[in-house]
Structures are given as structure tokens and as C-alpha cells.
Amino acid sequence: MTKRIFRRMDFALIIATAGIVVMSLVIIGSATHINAPGREHYWFVQRQGIFAIIDVALAIFLMNFDYKILQGYGTRLYVFNLIMLLAVMLVGHSALGAQRWISIGPINIQPSEFSKLIMVASLAAMLEGRVGRINTVHDLLPIAAYVGVPFLLVLKQPDLGTSLVFLAIFFGMIFVCGIRLRLLCGIFAAGIACLPVLWHFLKDYQKMRIMVFIDPNVDPLGSGYHIIQSKIAIGSGMLFGKGLFEGTQSQLNFLPENHTDFIFAVVGEELGFIGAAVLLLLYLIVLWRGVQIAKDASDIFGRLLATGITSMLAFHVLVNVGMTMGIMPVTGIPLPFMSYGVSSLTTNILAVAVLLNIHLRKQKLLF
């Protein structure tokens, strides 16, 4: 049985994910080895590597359980998610102008990261009995409200980027549920029409980010500084890059958040177009396998789970890479498996474990 399971594992997904994680550790080491005041030169990469090993072990352990168990815990997962997000508002601590973290001993966790995967599981359980039955606004309202509560709690932190991930998950999953295309197009049209109104609800720094997206030179030493330095870093890498540990924008601290939100800019500068293309190819493989697993799932719940996870990962990659190149507004969305962060890495590795679980259960190799 063990040999059969090993032979039927989705090695394309495993190898692509492992490749991104290994590349992440190399780039984090390069970006932070001279920028870790009061710590060992490779403190960040050591910490990320340790948690990567722990996360893989946890993922292997969870593979022994049938993902269909989650379907019976949809409501409890949803309630737990709300409690966790409310806890951030009550006992969380602030950093970089947002209250998003909870300290557990020496570890700071970001509940909004875990809430995305929990939202996928609970929403899949809710939608499982609604496939083919979302034909009117009345049918859609309970689903929108279900997603809207955690969306607003995350938005309150404030964390606009992560809250938008909830919308990506929502739209991906209701599309697979068979929502009428006319209704879906109507939602997008209404959203576009409401943009002028929504503008007045944005905070000043969020408005400035959008203005900087249109023209970074509006505030070149403030809100526009990140994107200007990121574009310089990516452009200076040219075809083959400057080489590991040789990126001037990153090594000389011109590029802010070079090991988290703007890590793709470090890849572009130090590994060039070739290195960035390889990384994007690995992401393409992960997303392609996610789509295939959703398509081939043996049950509706598994299909919805895989769709939600793939939508989540795809949105992260598109927005993060887009913002570093100046074709998307700057948000705090990390690059999956690449950006430094225990909560983000754990969430994404567990998400891949769920995809692998769905793939194996489809083949009736695990019981």
C-alpha cells in the first residue's frame, strides 16, 4: 500500500512546491544576511527553514486523515475563524500600522493568514449542497454574508490585501458552483459602478497607494518609494541577474521589505529574467495541478476545496508579482512559499497537503 501511494503521489505539485521553498530560503538568506541587526546573519533563513521542516512533517501527518472529515466541521471551523479574528482586535499587537498579530511565546502568528484556508474549508462545506442552485441575487445573498463577516473583520485590522483574498476565494468557488454568468457579470458591473463610492471609505494611505500605482512620482520618497526601488531592482537584473548576494538595491537597503512583500524584486535583481521566469514556471505548475485536482476530484466538496485553494494561491501570485513590477497597487499580500513569514508558509504548505490529499483519495489509495 505504501509503495502504491508513493507511485501515485502528485510529484509535479510536490517538486514545484519544494523548488519554490528552496529558492525562497536562498533568496531570504541573500536579502537578509547583512540586514539582521542584533541577530545572526542568517537568522531569518534559519527560522524559515526550521518551520518549513515542521510544516512538512505536519502536512505528512494530516495526509493520514480523509479531507472529507472537514465537511462535517464547516460551521465549527467558521465560528472558530470568527473568534480568532476577533481575538486579534482584542489582544493582538500592532506592527507597520496594522493590528494583525498575536504573540504566543516567542512566535508571532498572523491569524488572517490561517483564516483564508479555514474560510475555504467552511465555505466548501456550505456550498456543497448549493451547486447548480445559485441563480438569483436572493440565492447569492446568504453566501455573500457568510464570506462578508470575516472579510470585514480582516478589513478592520486594517488589511485590505488579505480581505481581497477572501473575494478571490468567493468568486472562484461560486463560479465552480455553477452560478449564472449573467448574475456574475452583474456583480462585477455593480462593483465597478460602486468604485467612486468605495473611494471615500478608503484610508488616506490606501488612497495614496492607488495614486502611486497610477504615477509613482506623486510621492517618490514616501508611498511611491517601494515601487520605484522595486522596478529599479527588477530592471537592473536584466537577463541573468547580478548574482546571489550581489544585488545592490537589496544589499544596500534601498529596497524595503526585501524578504517579505518585495522578495520577487530580489529574485529579479539577483537572478535576472531567467531566474524570475523559472520561479513563475514553478508557480504555473502548482496552479495547473490545483486546477487539475479540482477537475478530477471524486466529490463536490473536494472539488470546491481544491478550487478555493487554487484561487487563493493564484490571487496571491498575480497581485504580489504585479505590485513589484508596478502593474498592481501595492498591498501587503505575501508571495506564497517565498515571502518570509511563519503563518503564511504554514498556511500554504497545509493548502498543498489538502490538494495532495484530494488527489490521493480520488484514486482510493487512502481510506
Separation, N- and C-terminal Cα atoms: 11 Å
- Along the chain, the helix and strand elements come as HHHHEEEHHHHHHHHHHH
The neighbouring-strand order within the major sheet is 1-2-3
**What is the number of E strands?**
3
Rg to the nearest angstrom?
Answer: 21 Å
Q: Please outline the major beta sheet.
A: 3 strands, antiparallel
Q: Mean pLDDT score, rounded?
A: 87
The level of helicity is: 55-70%
Runs in which pLDDT lies below 50 for 5 or more consecutive residues are none
Q: How large is the count of helical segments?
A: 15
Quick summary of this structure?
The chain is mainly α and 367 residues long. The chain contains 15 helices and 3 strands. A hairpin with a 2-residue loop joins strand 1 and strand 2.
What does this structure look like?
By secondary structure, the protein is mainly alpha-helical. The protein has one domain. The chain is 67% helix and 4% strand. It has a three-stranded antiparallel β-sheet with strand order 1-2-3, covered by helices on one side. Helix 2 packs antiparallel against helix 13 (263-296), helix 3 packs parallel to helix 15 (342-362) and helix 5 packs antiparallel against helix 6. The radius of gyration is 21 Å and the shape is globular. 42% of the residues are buried. The mean pLDDT is 87.
